[in-house]
Amino acid sequence: MRSWPVNIFVTATVLIVLPALTWAEDHRLPDYVVAEYGAPLAILDGALDPTTRRALDTLLIRAKDQADWNPSDQAAADALIAANDPRTIWTIADLQRFAWRPEFSAMLTRVSKAILETDFAGHLPRERTLNTLIAWDMPAYPGYLAHKKAIYTHYLPGLDHLFTEGDIDWQLVDWGGVKIDARAFGDTDAVCHCIPAVDNPATQPAKDATWLRDDDIVFGVEINGEARAYPRRIMEIREMVNDTLGGRDIAMPYCTLCGAAQAYFTDALPPGTKRPVLRTSGLLIRSNKVMYDIETGSVFDTFKGSAVTGPLADIGLTLEKVTVITSDWGSWRRAFPDTTVLVEDLALGRDFNLRETRDAGGPIFPVGDVDPRLPVHEDIIGVLTHSGQPVAFPRAKALAALLSGSKVTLAGISLNRTAGGLSATARDVPVPSHEAFWFAWAQFHPGTLLWEG
User: Fold this and answer.
1) What's this model's pTM, rounded to 2 decimal places?
2) How far is residue 110's CA from residue 133's CA, in Å, rounded to a whole number?
3) Is pLDDT above 50 for 20?
4) CB burial of residue 435 (10 Å; 0-12, 13-18, 19+)
């Protein structure tokens, strides 16, 4: 998020303070964003005025006990509308997430509608509100985090230690509808009302995995000659695995909403750094899961593997990526006959197939603007070059090209057919890659170079 400082011009004898730039005066958005959401509204940088802050504080108090709502609370809403500061809509949207009383929810929608100057026609009000704010790259006001923490921790116990300042835009964080996974390492209790990660998962040889069909999707990892398959059916239930493979400790988060199974080394860390044990927080950022380390409470950017708050952020920790190959079980076990695979019991008797059911119509949580070069749910293979340049290859088009005998290369990165999936190399040296939906890769890696065939 941008912060526009007051412009100061100094001479030997005079200090001249020029008016602060408004955020919208110097905020240029792509044409496709303006076409969809309109031009961003003008705001002044700086702290909220006292009247606006008192109005927000009043609504926060009311949100905790909505049963006592009464028409006099409209005064706080009217004060926010009169102040007309779009930054306050971040807090209004947070309040809407937990609004259960119809009259309270309607009042919040009225505030959003008046300030954003929209009628929400054809859209869910909160979803449209957040998509608009995200697309506009609307900043939060100073002190916003304290308001958000007060709201979220009132309704979601166990999150207090996560809401700390860091390299994260907290206004973009939403609740995904499940509780935090706060179980200790190795805890096998899956009845936690959370998305239960699995540590040191039980595995079996390929020949014993008769429960898997050849066309079942698996996420394959090979390290130091040891291969393992993580069936999508299990990963849709667990969403996080802390494992050891090929003599290395790894963590594999799977974000069903982003279609992305990723893997990171969690060993070979700076001296004195304990192995992070990653868990699902129940929070999302632009429809991507927010993971955290139960050892330190550090929050991670799941898509990039970087710690963004807490002690691990203080040391600038970014986990080293591992290639994950999305394949089918038949192709993977033929390529790696000695592979192991997670046991069926880890699926807890469930088979959601969320990709082709819940998520089939596009992102179900707000993501804001999406780079229009590809459909939002197009599968891509994402790679970072050695210089950090993000590169993406549409999976279907790249696979078709390789099957026809063509090369698939961009920015020094080449794709190769591997075990029924695709992997990447740079000058014949493997580089980490993984599959994801285009909307997810593009929003966490703006400026991506796109292979177009």
Assistant:
1) 0.91
2) 16
3) no
4) buried
